[in-house]
Design brief:
- This protein is mainly α and about 200 residues long.
- The chain has a single domain, classed as Hypothetical protein af1432.
- Helices cover about 65% and strands about 0% of the residues.
- Helix 7 crosses helix 8.
- The longest helix is centred in the last third of the chain and has 23 residues.
Length: about 200
């Protein structure tokens, strides 16, 4: 089902959002560093998957924005309440479309609507863009847990058609080489950051 009933006018939407860029930045920078980095990686992974699926420019724009903002609710609601809290935050920004807000609210819902949270009696299934973010989110959580891409793909396969959209899982398999390169670059960055963090400061 579509994420949005609004007309897909990317330029107008971007111009409107530009008026609220400070609010968007505020939502992100108050997150803990690891959550913030997770949002950035999920953005990149979702973009790669969306491009492989042939999304239009307006769809890609909303997908990337939703992926970037999907965990803003973890600022003060780290548990299962974070999607709804995040939705409350992004709903305060007039420039964000309904589609982007729905990604934030439903990114933990199952593709077939039978599981996940929060359950919404008026929404049988999360929209397609939300389902992409759900897969990208899962891939990054595999990365953080140091799960191999092969095992991550096997996990996605096990939930294909229920928790995950089967067409999205297929697209992920088709770009597994690109995703492996992304995951390697992230792992290298984490290693370098950890080394830098452990270097003692002079005079202390």
């Amino acid at each position: 089902m579509p994420c949005d009933q609004d007309a897909c006018n990317t330029k107008a939407e971007q111009e409107q959002l530009a008026e609220y860029d400070v609010e968007l930045v505020k939502l992100l920078v108050r997150l803990e560093h690891e959550i913030f980095m997770h949002c950035l990686r999920t953005h990149d992974l979702a973009q790669a998957i969306g491009s492989a699926l042939g999304l239009s420019s307006p769809e890609l724009f909303r997908l990337k924005m939703g992926a970037l903002l999907h965990d803003v609710g973890k600022h003060d609601a780290p548990g299962p309440e974070h999607p709804r809290r995040g939705w409350e935050y992004v709903s305060s920004i007039p420039g964000l479309s309904t589609g982007i807000k729905n990604i934030v609210l439903h990114h933990h819902r199952w593709a077939d609507g039978t599981g996940g949270y929060p359950q919404d009696p008026e929404e049988e299934r999360p929209c397609f863009l939300t389902q992409i973010v759900s897969v990208a989110d899962t891939i990054d959580r595999c990365l953080v847990r140091q799960v191999s891409l092969e095992d991550c793909l096997a996990f996605l396969d096990s939930g294909s058609g229920t928790q995950f959209n089967q067409y999205i899982v297929k697209a992920v398999k088709n770009i597994s080489t690109e995703l492996a390169e992304l995951m390697t670059s992230y792992a290298e960055y984490q290693t370098q950051a950890a080394i830098g963090h452990n270097i003692p400061s002079r005079g202390r």
